[in-house]
Amino acid sequence: MTAALRTARRADAAGPIGRAMTVLGCLGARPSPLSLAEIARRTGLPKTTVHRLLAALQAQGAVRRTPAGYVLGEAVRRWSDGAETAHRDALRHLLTPHVTELYEATRLPASLAVLDGDSVVHLVSLYPRSMADQAPHRAARVPAARTALGRLLLAYRPGPGEPEPELLRIRRDGIAFLGGGPSGGPAEVAVPVAARPDRGMVALGLAGRPGRLIDPGAEGLLRRTALEARLTLRRHRAALP
In terms of domains, do 68 and 88 share one? Predict the structure, then answer.
C-alpha cells in the first residue's frame, strides 16, 4: 500500500473534516504552489473530491489559488505561524542548556535547528568570537541542501516516494556530514534529536574547520547531547504546544 493510499484511507475514515485536513496538510508540507492534480496524487483522494474541498476551503480563506497552483490562505497561515512560533520558543527554552553544554565541551559552533519548507531555521546558535563569521544567524533562512543540519532534516522529512540515495543513507546512519570543500568553509556534522508527526524533526549540529571536527570525541559528544535533549523533550512533552 502506497503512502498516498494510506493517507486517503485515514482521511476517508475521518469524514469530510479529515479529508479537508489532509488537503491542508498537503499544502502546508510544500513551500511552492501545488496543482489540483498534484494534490490529488499526493493525498490519494479523487480529483472531484479535491476540487470540491479546495472550493470550500478557498471560500473560508483557508486556501488561496494562484496562477501557479494552490497555497495555504492567510487564515491558516496566521494560525499556523502563531502555533509554530510558540512551539519553537518552547524548544528553545527546553534545549538551550543542552546546546550550551555541547558548545562549552567542544568550543565549536553548536546549533539547534528545524526545517521550514526547504530552508533551515536555527533556533539556537552558540559560537566562539573567533568563528562569528562562520556561524548562522538565528533569523537567517539557509537552503537546507547546503548544510549538514539541512540535509539531515530533509532526510527525515515525511512525504510520498523515496528520498534520494544520500538522504536514505543519512536516515539509515542517523548522522549527516558535510566536508570543508575547496572553498575552505567549515566541516559540519548533525544528528537528529526528536520528531513529532505534526511538527517534524529537531536536529543538533556542530561546525568547525576541516580536520578538527570530524573525530570520535566531537561526534560522541554530539550524539550524547542529542540523546539527553531527546530525553528532556520526552519529560516535557505535555508542555510543548
Answer: no
**What is the structure's pLDDT at 30?**
73
How far is residue 30's CA from residue 157's CA, in Å, rounded to a whole number? 11
Distance from the first to the final alpha carbon of the chain: 32
Among 29, 52, 72, the domain boundary falls at: 72
Return the DSSP state at 228. Answer: H
Q: Decide which of 139 and 206 is more confident.
A: 206
What the block records as the C-alpha cell of 197 is: 508527526
In whole angstroms, give the CA distance from residue 184 to residue 182.
5
Distance separating alpha carbons of residues 175 and 169, to the nearest angstrom: 9
Interatomic CA distance for residues 154 and 169, integer angstroms = 12
Region of 112 on the Ramachandran plot (φ > 0 left; ψ -120 to 50 alpha; else beta): beta
Reduced to 3 states (helix: H, G, I; strand: E, B; else coil), residue 222 is helix
Cα radius of gyration rounded to whole Å, the chain: 20
Rounded to 5°, the CA angle 46-116-130 comes to: 165
pLDDT higher at 84 or 82: 84
Span 178-197, average pLDDT: 72
pTM above 0.70, yes or no: no
Range of the domain at 143: 81-239
Whole-angstrom distance, CA of residue 135 vs CA of residue 142:
12
